[in-house]
Structure formats: structure tokens, C-alpha cells
Design goal:
The chain folds into two domains: 1-80 and 171-260, Rossmann fold (3-Layer(aba) Sandwich); 92-168, no CATH class. The chain has ten helices and ten strands. The chain has helices spanning 43-50, 73-78, 96-102, 112-117, 120-139, 155-167, 185-200, 212-218, 236-241, 243-250, and strands at 5-14, 17-27, 32-36, 58-63, 66-67, 81-83, 173-177, 204-208, 221-226, 229-234. The chain has a six-stranded mixed β-sheet with strand order 6-7-8-3-9-10, with helices on both faces. Strands 2-1-4-5 form a four-stranded antiparallel β-sheet, covered by helices on one side. Helix 3 (96-102) packs across helix 5 and helix 6 (155-167) runs parallel beside helix 7 (185-200). The longest helix is centred in the middle third of the chain and has 20 residues, at 120-139. The protein starts with a strand and ends in a 10-residue tail after the last helix.
Length: 260
């Protein structure tokens, strides 16, 4: 089975400082590939290059066979790539359902005039988006909270809502940046079950996560970064025994670096 997402020799420097260097990997449909590494390893920088936030200084990103290197995030979304962020991107003063509906905006078509005049086509689009949003909320277990203000949800449920909104784009590739960060053990287990279910539907998932128990439970494949370079790659059992991986984690002093 061919890869949906391929990263080939990706690299970037900031002010002469090499943040990521020559990183390559591929993610196939239904696979969960986790990118791990100590603080400062370049994981989020790598995500930002893949998702069009940063322009790589070297290498390329291939999405379903198309070179999408440095393509804008909205254009990537239309081609099947969706992403969540470390920091929640939720509208706290909107309901859970309204937040989920907002995820459909890139897939909607129609004129502004039709929306302003509330023409039948506009009402039909709104109805379709609402129905789709409710299905997503059921998928992530939030259907009973549909009319609740998002600001009243627990952190773990907000994380699930953000994933639901990312799924509104019906992605082929889903990038999850620390989806379990700040969650308790029960919330983390709920999220990893949800991620596994999404992958089982054929979506290729690229995951950055600091919870190593979760990573080892759900990952098909793991890539390990240290100081911006790939130092190991393989299945969870192989990576967990790699001496370079053990040295990278044991040698990283808490608080020494800030970039994730």
C-alpha cells in the first residue's frame, strides 16, 4: 500500500541555527506514526513545515503523490490534510455544536449573497453542516453536550472537540499535536481509543505526543528526533530498546530546552 504522506529530507534553520535536518518518513492509510523526542528535538517545527506554517529550507512534502511543500494550510486542507495544535483552537463562547460546524467551512461552497438572503441553497448547506457536525460529535462522544458552551467543557473533552473539528474536513491525513497533553489517565485512554478508531477507518495519522505509554500503545511506527535529526525509527518495541533513544531521553535535562 502506497504512502499518503511522505516527508523527504525535510530541514529548516532559524538565524543560522539548524532546527530540523534531513528528516524523512512515510505514513500509509490506517497507520499511526508517532514522532517523539526530548524537549527541543524539533517535533513541532517539523509539524509546522509539513502543515504549511513554515517553509522548509530543504526537502519536500508529498501528499497522496502530489508535491505540497510550503503549500498554504487552507489549500492542504482541501487536498486532505487536517491538523490540531498544542494549544486549543476552540471558540470558548460558542456551543460545542457551533464549534463542530465551524470545521466544515472549507468544504462549503456557495455565494455570500445567498447566505445573506437565506436562500434555499444556503439553508440546505447549513442543514447539511449541522447534520455532519452532530455525526462527528457522536463519533467523539460529545453529542449530549452539543448545546453546551465549549468553555464549560473539561480539558479532555475540549481535546476531543478539537479532533472532531479537524475530522470535519474528511481528511486523508490527520496531524495531531499532543492530543493528550493536560489530560488525566481516563481522558487519555478515551482519546487514544478515538485515535485508533479514526486510523481504522483508513486515515493516515501523524502524532506528536509526550505520553510515552499512549505512544507505545497505539503507534504502528515511531520516528525519534533529537536536536532536529532522526536518530531512530521502527516499531514501538524496537524503538524502546534503541540505545540512542534511551540516551537521548536520559540525557535531556528538564527545562533545558523549550521548543517541542
Amino acid at each position: 500500500m502506497s504512502a499518503l504522506l511522505s516527508v523527504e529530507g525535510l530541514g529548516i534553520s532559524f538565524g543560522g541555527l539548524r532546527a530540523v535536518h534531513d528528516v524523512s518518513f512515510a505514513v500509509k492509510p490506517g497507520e499511526i506514526l508517532s514522532v517523539i523526542g526530548p524537549n527541543g528535538a524539533g517535533k513541532t517545527t517539523l509539524f509546522n513545515m509539513i502543515s504549511g506554517v513554515y517553509r522548509p529550507g530543504a526537502g519536500r512534502v508529498m501528499l497522496n503523490g502530489e508535491d505540497v511543500t510550503a503549500m498554504r494550510p487552507d489549500l492542504l486542507a482541501r487536498r486532505g490534510m487536517s491538523r490540531t495544535f498544542q494549544n486549543l483552537q476552540i471558540f470558548q463562547n460558542m456551543t460545542v455544536l457551533e464549534n463542530a460546524i465551524a470545521g466544515f467551512h472549507l468544504t462549503e461552497s456557495g455565494s455570500l449573497m445567498a447566505d445573506l438572503l437565506r436562500l434555499p441553497a444556503s439553508r440546505a448547506r447549513a442543514r447539511t453542516a449541522r447534520e455532519g457536525a452532530m455525526r462527528l460529535l457522536e463519533r467523539v462522544g460529545l453529542e449530549r453536550a452539543a448545546e453546551t458552551d465549549a468553555g464549560n467543557l473539561s480539558y479532555g473533552r475540549l481535546k476531543r472537540l478539537e479532533i472532531a473539528r479537524a475530522l470535519a474536513l474528511d481528511p486523508k491525513v490527520l496531524l495531531l499535536d499532543e492530543p493528550a497533553a493536560g489530560c488525566n489517565a481516563v481522558e487519555t485512554e478515551e482519546i487514544d481509543h478515538m485515535i485508533a478508531e479514526v486510523a481504522a477507518s483508513g486515515v493516515a495519522i501523524l502524532l506528536v505526543e509526550h505520553d510515552m505509554k499512549m505512544v507505545m500503545r497505539i503507534s504502528s511506527h515511531i520516528v525519534v528526533l533529537d536536536h532536529g535529526e532522526k536518530i531512530a525509527e521502527g516499531d514501538p518495541a524496537t524503538v524502546s530498546r534503541d540505545p540512542k533513544v534511551i540516551a537521548a531521553y536520559l540525557g535531556a535535562e528538564a527545562g533545558e530546552e523549550t521548543d517541542a
